Amino acid sequence: MTQNHMTEDERQRVKQRIERDLAPRNTTTAIQPYWGDPRSIDEALALAEHIVSSGLTPSAVKTPAQALVIMMTGAELGMSPMGALRQIHVIEGRPSLSADLLVALVLKSGFAEHFSCVESTNDRAVWSTRRRGESHEVECEWTFGDAKRANLVNKDNWKKYPRAMLSHRASAELARRVYPDVVGGHYTPDEIEERRDSELLFVRDVTPTAPAEPVAAAQTANNPATPKPARELATPKPARELATIDDVACLYNEIRAVLKLGDTAEDTERAREFALEAGVVLPKTRGEIAEVGFAPSDVSAVRNALAEHERAEQAMSEIDEVPDEDTERR
């Protein structure tokens, strides 16, 4: 029998090679601090720089600062940096979320007992949910007639995939209406793009600009005008955060869906009356947003009123379904 004699150094080298081969592989040691959620703004910015330099980001993300904003938006929603870059899109300079992502965030939050599609056809989509702690369900319906009134049906996606588009609209609207604390008032890319060419779905801003003051004939080179005394500058007040024109347009849509209104001038006034009952003056133009100080808190107030209206209607329908004693005896 032939014996293999190994020196002590050889045995140590073999032992080290076996231990190395059996050890768990870890090929991400160099970037481990950034694998997952960055732990500081410096790490987040470094991660954004690496991602942008890779050239694999969406076309709208051109700088590390833009990538960082999307990552921070995702962090507010509990998303990982890469998940945010994949699923949050920037439309007209505003982050937007897909309808599927809005539903996923609601389900992940644990606030919903269920959030499900009740019906989905080429003519109608109905989604239903019940928030934990609430005794009633809330439904949202979008029909092809709603899409026609909103001038959506001529778009390519609506022609090819009407069932999917109706379902996306109903689920996204329901998520915002019942879970505003989860989805943060975000809109889908389709909802934002449809308002690209209009300031409001109902009324355009036609506020005329103030005419310039006529120059007096006496103000000539030989007879200069007497300069007016300078006004004292008032101490500027801190600017109040205002809602955007997209917020107003989407709020009109939500009121119209709940109250089953059309897009006529009378329907617009009815929507404003509903908001006024909630203590909110709903603007019709871009200029009116600043004029009445329409803020995100006003948007939330109207949405709360819509939720109360739906709860009241649900309670009334339940009462109507209960037969009275005289009817049962007969």
Which descriptors would you attach to this protein?
330 residues; two-stranded antiparallel ribbon; 3-stranded antiparallel sheet
Q: What would you note in describing this structure?
A:
This protein is mostly helical. Among the domains are: 39-91, no CATH class; 95-194, no CATH class; 245-317, no CATH class. It is built from 15 helices and five strands. A hairpin with a 3-residue loop joins strand 3 and strand 4 (124-131). Helix 11 packs across helix 12. The longest helix is centred in the C-terminal third of the chain and has 26 residues, at 296-321.
Order of SSEs: HHHHEEHEEEHHHHHHHHHH
Estimate the mean pLDDT confidence: 76
Structural class category: mainly alpha
Poorly predicted sequence stretches spanning 5 or more consecutive residues:
24-35, 197-209, 215-221, 230-234
Number of contiguous helices: 15
- Give the CA-based shape: elongated
Major β-sheet profile: 3 strands, antiparallel
Distance between the termini: 107 Å
Q: Would you count the extended β strands for me?
A: 5
Radius of gyration: 30 Å
Across the major sheet, the strand order is: 3-4-5
Helix content range? 40-55%
Strand content: 5-15%
